[in-house]
Amino acid sequence: MNDIPKPLVIVGDGEFAEIACEYFTHDSTHQVVGFAVEQKYMSKESLFGRPVVPFEEIETRFPVAEHAVFVAVTFTQLNRVRARLFAATREKGYRISRYVSSRAFVWHDVTLGDNCFVFENNVLQYQVKVGDNVVLWSGNHVGHRSIIRDHCFLSSHVVVSGYCDIGESCFLGVNATLHDHVKVARDCVIGAGAVISKDTQPGQVYKGPKNAEASPVSSLKLFKVPE
User: Fold this and answer.
1) All domains of the chain, ordered by start, with CATH?
2) What distance in Å separates the CA atoms of residue 175 and residue 140, rounded to the nearest whole number?
3) pLDDT tens readout for residues 9-55
4) Which residue from 177, 149, 148 is spatially nearest to 161, judged by alpha carbons?
5) pLDDT tens-digit profile of 64-104?
6) Beta-bridge partner residues of 83
7) Which of 65, 143, 152, 165 has the fewest C-beta atoms lying within 10 Å of its C-beta?
8) Is the pLDDT of residue 211 over 80?
9) What is the mean pLDDT of the segment spanning 173-199?
10) What pTM does this model have?
């Protein structure tokens, strides 16, 4: 399910960018040729022997027609930073890549958007739909006919049962569990180990091992999302 290879530029130079470089290099047909970071956040000129260039000048160093791009940013500001850079990269005209581990189980009719990163030991079952710019860290289970919408981040060992619908820009913590047919509204944070057995409300934080309830602090405040 990995897409047609081109020389690849990774947007970001943090831990996820380093991991993405490692995985693309050793478990895909892509060749990572450089990194790009917004000018005001640049702190180095090279990484793993590859140039780090200002994102604002990426087209001059890595021509659009000859390169693909992957945006390797985690869940900063509840996925807003990754979403913004994804949109800016698409606006520049680059083909945006994706990565699916050779050790993931992805059924043949799963649909997967651009800029998705699927780590090892994920299970994506029959007719699962994954939007753009979604990160599935290692070991998650996504049940049949479930939907994960754009800009979500699922940590490790999350269980999404069948017919679930996870709204845009959500964060699901380690070992979170969703019952069948649950709808998670956009901008929700589902805490580590939380069990969600009913639909959630937008922009809320849910925690607790059983029948998790919304926290008094909203997800937008918790992740310092600008007003």
Assistant:
1) 7-97 (3.40.50.20), 100-212 (2.160.10.10)
2) 9
3) 999 999 999 999 999 999 999 999 999 999 999 999 999 999 999 99
4) 177
5) 999 999 999 999 999 999 999 999 999 999 999 999 999 99
6) none
7) 65
8) no
9) 97
10) 0.92
Cα(104)–Cα(88) distance, rounded to whole angstroms?
A: 29
Are 224 and 208 spatial neighbours (Cβ–Cβ below 8 Å)? no
Both tokens of residue 34?
A: 């450089």
